[in-house]
## 1
Amino acid sequence: MSRADKDLYHIKFKAKKMVGCELFIKDKTDWLSALLQTEFFSPCSDHQDLRKNEKNVFCIDCSLGFCRHCKVHSQHLSLQICKYVYQDVVRLQEMQKHIDCSKIQTYKINGEKAVHLNPRPQAKDAKTSMKSRPGASCEACGRYLQDPPNRFCSIACKVE
Ligand SMILES: [Zn+2]
Ligand SMILES: [Zn+2]
Ligand SMILES: [Zn+2]
């Protein structure tokens, strides 16, 4: 997905979710909304000449994504972001120190549980067919959920 597409996706998604939810959104901590909007795994603008300069860590104190060469954040509270099937995920164990991750679908990645930051893109007509499936679909975006007691496919769907 190109950056423009991703932005468009976010705008569409937000516009849809915004109705009647303003209060809830204001309560949401700023770093969390920054986390959900950060484009990870793009090259760090401060370290373009270095290898392994992809932004794959998020600084909670500064509300921004950074790379392993950005030493300013070494003493800050941070979150390691991982890639799973082209999507940004975070280890459940790390994330639940900061927010309540219950009822969010988890995935086993290298033996550890992880949760998606944002819902995975889905085909336009997928939603209707998802809805007709019994039981588990995300309460926010309608995406099919693997494990029925869960109610959300991603952190974004739970907090928005
Ligand atoms: Zn950097
Ligand atoms: Zn920082
Ligand atoms: Zn969802």
## 2
Amino acid sequence: MPRTTRRTVLASLAALAATRLAAHPARALGSASALDPDWTTPHPPYRIAGNLFYVGSRDLASFLVATHEGLILINGNLATSPVPIRAGVEQLGFRWSDVKILLISHAHYDHCAGSAQILKETGATYMVMDADVASVQSGGKTDFHFSAHPEMLFPAAKVNRTLHDGDAVRLGKTTLTAHKTAGHTPGCTTWTLETAVLSGRAEPSYKAVIVGSPNVLSSYNLIDDPKYPNMAADFRCQFATLKSLPCDLFLGAHASYYGMLEKYPSLKAGSTANHFVDARGYHDFVAERQQAFETELARQQKTHTASHPS
Ligand SMILES: [Zn+2]
């Protein structure tokens, strides 16, 4: 299909998947019966570009950054995920014990329940954005929204370094930047890095963006949540940040954000174009998610005004 049409289709698919995720509280709550099968269905590990690899499932993304000083892993995912993540790392030819740094997209069990086990097995240093540290260290018991939902809790893990907006995480010659993109959780993090140019490969360095989550869960109160009164302002700030980030490689905490399953076959087929290089898809996704946020905010404001007449 023509390139622009394909892009539009991919952007629509990614937006649709994100909407599907945001719109189902049962899925967000994660009761066993409501778990998206794609969260636990394996996906072959692969090199995305340069020194950046994918080791997640069909939907729960986990990324590996390889450096001469060791490995950085982004997202430990579910409590059952460390075994398949480790298998992916080893299948790519790396050693599990070389994972030196563990990072997350945000403090929800689908991205950090596996952290405690990974830290125990690898001895990696755990680095988490300031406003998500308490939740990570309490196993979700201090989460502003889900603390009363036992099915949302996860094994607590000790954080070794507290990150702040704009902090750099360095290993070998690679630097990742932690962008606080709050709203979905108060310490939700979007990671950026420039991929390394590998010798012998005719491939440039790419600017990668790994989106933390721009989604308003359908049970969220954007107007006056006493535990998170600044949520709407944080979301606005998040969208301003996301729009400002230079992006070649469009990636995210869920593969569905960036249409991985639709893009992967071309990479596997050895296409000369890397379809994960998708600045247009990234900006379309951010714009669509911002519109969804504004629509939900307007809906909640209307309901709030009706129930609190002046
Ligand atoms: Zn989440």
